[in-house]
Design goal:
The chain is mainly β. It has 2 domains: 5-100, Beta Barrel (Elongation Factor Tu (Ef-tu), domain 3), CATH 2.40.30; 112-218, Rossmann fold. Helix content is 14%, strand content 35%. The protein has helices at residues 80-86, 125-134, 154-158, 197-209; strands spanning 5-16, 21-27, 42-45, 57-65, 70-76, 93-100, 112-118, 138-145, 162-167, 174-175, 190-194, 214-217, 233-236, 239-242, 249-251. A 7-stranded mixed sheet has the order 10-9-8-7-11-12-15. Strands 1-2-5-4-3-6 form a 6-stranded antiparallel beta barrel. Strand 8, helix 3 and strand 9 form a beta-alpha-beta unit. The radius of gyration is 17 Å and the shape is globular. 46% of the residues are buried.
């Protein structure tokens, strides 16, 4: 786990991807030093000047360059707090805590991996795919959304590995849910997924059927992000574990899901 720090990041770019999503590019200060960011970790951001937003907002780290200390975050407008973040201009400062939580595994060189995301769940797959490719792993991506206009970062993922798509209405890729995509008919050395729980359960079920180990990044509600408030607890074979500390990434064999 990368050592967490509190720092003030500067927004250097704010790129709207659609009406619901924006990509923030952050420049981290020199004071953070050489931090290690693991794919699947997240940051907690204080939302300033938003009177009704009392708690920090947990945001998955989409990408991070350790040499330039540039971090990118994919943000979905889900309420006043995230709406405020999506509207911030360049030059704005963000009070940030991170990196937090545990990340996905990186298989051995020569392995195959399927990285599946739905909606905002595609965010941690960018850094994960890059790390895997750098480690000699062949990543394949599965992106799911309700319609074609909500497929996120398809070109960026295609620069890393093969991309398969599922849309509920059939406007792009295969028609239907991501868990029913034909990409899941093959066996992989590791399947990694993040998104709505029904999607992750369906993907985990397919992975088990094909003998593929599966890791999921849970989107449990979080308040503190530090393990103190216990609102993100997940029942597991090892008892109740905190998604923000022991997770958010878990092997599905540890979870009490009906697969």
């Amino acid at each position: 786990m990368g050592k967490k720090q509190i720092f003030e990041a500067t927004i250097t770019a704010n790129r709207p991807l659609s009406e619901r999503y924006s990509m923030l590019t952050l420049q981290l200060p020199d004071t953070v030093g050489d931090i290690e960011v693991l794919p699947g970790q997240f940051v907690e951001i204080r939302v300033a000047d938003s009177p009704s937003t009392y708690l920090r907002r947990p945001i998955s780290i989409c990408d991070y360059d350790s040499e330039t200390r540039v971090m990118t975050l994919l943000i979905r407008r889900a309420g006043e707090g995230t709406d405020h973040l999506c509207n911030l201009p360049c030059g704005s400062k963000l009070d940030t805590v991170g990196p937090l939580g545990n990340g996905f595994s990186i298989p051995a060189p020569g392995s195959t991996a399927l990285l599946a995301g739905g909606g905002i769940g595609v965010a941690p797959l960018m850094l994960l795919g890059k790390k895997m490719k750098d480690n000699g792993v062949t990543p394949r991506f599965l992106l799911g959304a309700r319609t074609a206009s909500e497929i996120l970062l398809a070109e960026e993922f295609a620069a890393i590995g093969e991309v398969s798509v599922s849309t509920d209405d059939g406007s792009a890729g295969e028609k239907g849910y991501a868990a029913d995509n034909s990409a899941l008919d093959s066996r992989y050395d590791l399947v990694c997924t993040c998104g709505p729980k029904p999607m992750m359960v369906g993907i985990a079920r397919k992975a088990r059927r094909n003998g593929s180990p599966c890791e999921v990044s849970l989107e449990n509600l979080m308040a503190c992000g530090l393990g103190a408030c216990l609102c993100c607890v997940e029942p597991t074979l090892k008892g109740n574990l905190r998604a923000c500390v022991e997770g958010p990434v878990f092997n599905t064999e540890m979870l009490l899901w009906e697969l």
